[in-house]
Amino acid sequence: MPKNQQFNPKDIPHDVWWVWTIQYANQPVGSDTYNKIQEIIDKHPQYFEWEHKYKKIPQDVHDAFLKECYHQIFEPINKSEKLITKITKLEPTKPTIKEWIDTLKKFKNQIHTKKIKQNETAKHICNKHYKKYKLKYRDIY
């Protein structure tokens, strides 16, 4: 949703609200929905300023950002020890409900902290690659 512009909510098309809702919720989408979103963005450029700025930037800039920010995607997977192997090596235990809840809370906090750190790193890398195009980072978390 554009932050710098004021729109009368009654004048905003339903399909634009639909895209904004998906973006705001950071909702994963399939290819059909993604294509529909792109059609709506192209149809209503006045509501999607950021997306149109993004599309004008050369692909090599996007590639450089992705390789630096999400380098793990481009690294080969170590096939020497698969997840199933790791799981089967664990000793089976029967935790108490309190231990289970404590473990889940700890896991949730670790994920939260990791996402915040990843977001800060992504923002720094984004600014490095996109600053000259005046494209500001959009928080993903």
Can you walk me through this structure?
- The chain is an all-alpha fold.
- The protein folds into two domains: 1-56, no CATH class; 58-141, no CATH class.
- The protein has helices at 14-25, 31-43, 49-56, 59-69, 71-74, 83-89, 97-130.
- α4 (59-69) runs antiparallel to α7.
- The chain is extended, with a radius of gyration of 21 Å.
Query: Element order, helices and strands?
Result: HHHHHHH
Strand content: under 5%
Query: What is the number of beta strands?
Result: 0
Structural class: mainly alpha
- The stretches of 5 or more residues where confidence is low (pLDDT under 50) are none
Mean pLDDT comes to: 84
Terminus-to-terminus distance = 16 Å
Which outline best applies?
A: extended
The DSSP helix count reads 7
Helix fraction bin: 55-70%
Main sheet, how many strands, which sense, barrel?
Answer: none
Oligomer: single chain
Q: How many whole angstroms does the radius of gyration measure?
A: 21 Å
How many structural units, i.e. domains?
2
